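Subject: sequence -> structure tokens, single chain

Hey, anyone have a minute? Need the predicted structure for the following. Not urgent.
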Amino acid sequence: MSLLMKSVLITAGLGLLFMLYEWSLMRKKKGGVTATDRKNLRDLVFFTAGACALVAFAVATLT
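Reply:
Had a minute. Here:
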């Protein structure tokens, strides 16, 4: 497995863990999961994808 692939997978894994943590906190709230919470979670998905792309670009450029 190349360095590029490892870096992107680590970044995606950390993003996924953060999303799961946020989801569990959202479920435990008194009002449950609201539409705003779902939008925030969607934004986390986009943020993680962007971070993966940035890491891939940086690693590809530096190697």
